[in-house]
Amino acid sequence: MNPPINIFDYEVLAQASMQPVIWDFFYGGSDDEVTLRANRSAFERILLRPRVLMDVNTCDISTSVLGIPVSMPVLLAPSAAHGLAHPDGEFATVRAAGAANTLMTLSTESTRSLEEVAALAQGPLWYQLYIYTLEEAQGMVQRAEQAGYTAIVLTVDLPRYSRRERDLRNDMNSYQQAHYPDAFSGNAPHLSVDGSDNQNTYIGDTITWDILPWLCSITSLPIVVKGILTAEDAELAINYGASAIIVSNHGGRQLDGVMPTIEALPEVVASVDGRCEVYMDGGIRRGIDIIKALALGARAVLIGRPVLWGLAVNGQEGVQHMLELLRSELTLSLRLAGCASLADIQRSLVQLP
């Protein structure tokens, strides 16, 4: 195959380079994968309404998130086990994020410790948190703050691990090859991929909104709540102390049949009404997808699987190139839409189905 010229090319090359069990682990969703597919197809139903005869000789796509400048409104979402995609794992990913002058969110289930990743960072970092035990969570938050991370991203849509049938067929529990130094006290977990009770010390199904004030009490870092899909939960997140919200359905990997994130975004943005920043993830594959998300109120988007595709294909250079493809597409599409900067993106730029 010729060198990749878009994210879909990277997806094809990544699948060819991975063992099938690893591909299924990264690519798959839960149950019938309805939401996994909908995250992507929903973007194709949203049309653009471009303006013409606008001066777009220069085009500025830089922005900021929680006051931190980034070169474009594309952030790296938390995703587990980069070491299964490439031997350099999260080390390659954080170097690529720094080279692109954008932000990386490190997963609790990273195959490199949060301190090791921070030591290599040339750009801003957020730390994503699963709460296995309160004691362990407090320790990870404090370590992240000391290491220079600038926000804690609390994932709230995982009260239980979902039923992921690709992983069931592949007996992923027995296959576990990843080592997560920051989670499970450094021991490789035996995670349930069928939704059963066999989840060791994970206490996600006992956590309530009171966890947000507790987190705020143990750190000075802002708390970003990831996994919001409704106006009701957006309101609660703000009331309990969230500094920002990520509209997310866990990439179609948790409750199947929920709305795609780009369709949930307007409801959440309307509820928030400017009281905090709103980001979204799920299904972003093109520069025009980013424009659509920003027109519907997102300040930035996060990408997950495309990072893993770039990593699998060519390590740090693959991730960097993938990000540059998105940057190039976004810049060109903005010009074609009549926008000279992100500030020119208005709600009137999109037509919903």
Written overview of the protein:
This is Alpha-hydroxy-acid oxidizing enzyme. InterPro entries: Aldolase_TIM (IPR013785), Alpha-hydoxy_acid_DH_FMN (IPR012133), FMN-dep_DH (IPR000262), FMN_HAD (IPR037396), FMN_hydac_DH_AS (IPR008259). Pfam families: FMN_dh (PF01070). GO terms for molecular function: FMN binding; oxidoreductase activity. The structure is a single chain. The protein is an alpha/beta fold and 353 residues long. It has one domain: Aldolase class I (TIM Barrel, Alpha-Beta Barrel). 40% of the residues lie in helices and 12% in strands. The protein has an 8-stranded parallel sheet. The two termini are 36 Å apart. 50% of the residues are buried.
Would you summarize the structure shown here?
By secondary structure, the chain is an alpha/beta fold.
